[in-house]
Specification:
The complex is a heterodimer of chains A (112) and B (113).
Chain A lengths: L3 E4 L2 E4 L5 E7 L5 E7 L6 E6 L6 E2 L6 E5 L5 E5 L8 E8 L7 E2 L3 E5 L1
Parallel strand pairs in A: 2-11
Antiparallel strand pairs in A: 1-3, 3-8, 4-5, 4-9, 5-6, 7-8, 9-10, 9-11
Chain B lengths: L4 E3 L2 E5 L4 E6 L5 E9 L6 E6 L5 E4 L2 E6 L4 E6 L8 E9 L6 E3 L3 E6 L1
The chains are: A mainly beta (112), B mainly beta (113).
């Protein structure tokens, strides 16, 4: 039982390049989330998907797009990377609204 | 914008000390309060999910209390051990909209042998 799996774990991009962060969960959870974590700040929600087929913006969605490909997978795309998007990105999932979130191991992204 | 604050930002204690942290959150539209433990180079792991005013939860030497009317929760660690060193996050979930989790910035605990 892998839980929440994110790929890649590390990535370096040049300004203007694009990339997709992949996330998959094997717990049959309905809800999935993408967060970013920056020094001195809490985990900030970028996008979320309440259920398969739906996505919505969180606190800091600018510069990102998401796809809920199926119940298992939720990807985050940077169309044109900027240095301000240098961060650690976490994917998470939860079963129901009042249950705990399970996190992936994170992707450390550097944009130069 | 929901404001979730944690204090202190960091704490350094000796092995065997007991300690506690505070999480403050909006006292209106409460749905749930989560506590997570986040070790360096790992991902956050849930400690408690609390939903009722007056809730008290315990897991080993760690316990938490909840006061939704005044908007705070305490996390206690009894007899701290070096393996308790981690960042402790709280997260608030409102009963409006999607009820997404809003995280505090965490309390970083270092326990020295």
């Amino acid at each position: 039982n892998a839980g929440v799996t994110q790929t890649p774990k590390f990535q370096v991009l040049k300004t203007g390049q694009s990339m997709t962060l992949q996330c998959a969960q094997d717990m049959n959870h309905n809800s999935m989330y993408w967060y970013r974590q920056d020094p001195g700040m809490g985990l900030r929600l970028i996008y979320y998907s309440a259920s398969e087929g739906t996505t919505d913006k969180g606190e800091v969605p600018n510069g990102y797009n998401v796809s809920r490909l199926n119940k298992r997978e939720f990807s985050l795309r940077l169309e044109s990377a900027a240095p301000s998007q240098t961060s650690v990105y976490f994917c998470a999932s939860s079963e129901r609204l009042n249950t705990e979130a399970f996190f992936g191991q994170g992707t450390r992204l550097t944009v130069v | 914008i929901l404001n979730v604050e944690q204090s202190p930002q960091s704490l350094h204690v000796q092995e065997g000390d007991s300690t506690n942290f505070t999480c403050s959150f909006p006292s209106s539209n409460f749905y749930a309060l989560h506590w997570y433990r986040w070790e360096t180079a790992k991902s956050p792991e849930a400690l408690f999910v609390m939903t009722l005013n007056g809730d008290e939860k315990k897991k080993g030497r760690i316990s938490a209390t909840l006061n939704t009317k005044e908007g705070y929760s305490y996390l206690y660690i009894k007899g701290s051990q070096p393996e308790d060193s981690a960042t402790y996050l709280c997260a608030f979930k409102s009963n409006t909209g999607f009820q997404k989790l809003v995280f505090g910035t965490g309390t970083r605990l270092l326990v020295s042998p």
